[in-house]
Structure formats: C-alpha cells, structure tokens
Write a structure and sequence with these properties.
Blueprint: E1 4-13, H1 38-49, H2 61-76, H3 82-98, H4 102-115, H5 120-132, H6 136-149, H7 154-167, H8 171-184, H9 189-195, E2 198-207
Antiparallel strand pairs: 1-2
Helix pairs in contact: 1-2, 1-3, 2-3, 3-4, 3-5, 4-5, 5-6, 5-7, 6-7, 7-8, 8-9
C-alpha cells in the first residue's frame, strides 16, 4: 500500500476566537414596476438600504416607516400580479431587516415563498434573517437553496454563509465562503476584511 502526501489548506483564527458578530446582509431588492406606483416606491426604498456605501445614519425611523407603508399600500391594492406581489413581500422584508426587526422580516420572506416557492432572493433573504436570529443551520440551508436557484447577487449569500459557518466554528468553510464572495465581487471590501481575520496554513495529510 503506497502512501501519498497531499497538501490541504486550513483556515485558523488569527488570534483566539474570531467572534463573528457582523449582521448577515440582505439580497438585492426586487424590481416592481406594475400596479399603482406604490410597489415601485417600496422597491426603490428597499434598494436604497442594500447599496454598499449608503450612510445608514441618514435613514431615520420615519423614512423607513413611510417606505414600509408604501409596501403595505402596494400589497393591499390588489393590482400586482403574483410575481410582483412576492417581490414586494421581499422588499418589505428587506426594509424590516434594515430596522433589525428580523422576526417581522422572516414572516415577509415566508409569505413571498408561499406565493413563489422558487424565488431565489426570498430564500437568500430568509437565510440572512435566520442567521441574524442565530438559527445558523437553518440559515445555511435557506441560503444554499437560494444560491442553487440562481440568486442575482450570489456574493451576498456567500458572505452570509461565511458568517454562519464561523458561528458554528467551521472555520474552513467560513473562510472559503468569504473567499467565494470576494471572488464574485472583488470591489466589495467586507469579505476581504473578514478573510483578513484568518491565518491560512498548509498542512500535510496522508492518502492511501
């Protein structure tokens, strides 16, 4: 029996416990142009909260409350088709997430999935909400489902997976998820900042 040495990469904490405390981010808002205009207002407000360089201090409680009211008006107008209605629930959930009302957001994303079970962004956002609620394993499952269905900004899902795996102390998968997020969007600084908290070393393993 011949033993062959192969190299593997292991990620380890740079200095003690990593202490993953960052919030999982939302997927991009879903465009809604139908109906009486309130659906579009809801979409544009949700889109603003997911811009990478938005100054969140300018988004006060009144602005977000008004935006959520626009979402509610759109949902109650009965002028949206099924896809736009599901998308509006996603956009409303993103706004709730921006206020850290994760339980409310979870309900919004589940309603979107009830209407449109294969809506990738709803799965990724539900996964993000679950991660923020510290339901890490469930969050991973939902996020992976959304990525499989073809989410439009997969780097956000991979970033969230990095947080979830880190909280579950699977540092190898955490590092690889952050690296994937960075590869998908090299201009995004957050995954690189998380990767900088790891030390990557090369280990020898034996294969029969």
């Amino acid at each position: 029996m011949i033993k062959i040495r192969a190299a593997m990469v292991a990620a380890v904490a740079a200095a003690g416990a990593l202490g993953f405390g960052g919030a999982a981010c939302a997927q991009a808002a879903l465009q809604v142009l139908g109906g009486d205009g309130t659906g579009e207002s809801c979409w544009r407000a949700a889109k603003a909260t997911t811009l990478q360089f938005v100054d969140s201090s300018k988004m006060d409680a009144r602005w977000k409350s008004d935006a959520i009211s626009a979402c509610d008006d759109a949902l109650h107008s009965a002028k949206l088709d099924r896809k736009d209605t599901a998308s509006t629930w996603v956009n409303r959930g993103i706004l709730e997430m921006s206020r850290e009302r994760y339980a409310n957001a979870r309900g919004n994303f589940k309603e979107a999935l009830r209407l449109y079970p294969d809506l990738a962004e709803a799965h990724v956002d539900l996964g993000s909400t679950l991660i923020n609620l510290q339901k890490f394993a469930d969050g991973i499952t939902e996020t992976q489902r959304g990525l499989t269905l073809g989410s439009k900004e997969p780097e956000r899902g991979w970033y969230n997976l990095g947080i979830a795996y880190g909280e579950l102390n699977d540092l190898q998968k955490s590092y690889e998820a952050f690296r994937k997020a960075s590869e998908l969007n090299p201009a995004w600084a957050d995954p690189k900042q998380e990767m900088a908290r790891f030390t990557v070393r090369r280990e020898e393993v034996q294969q029969k």
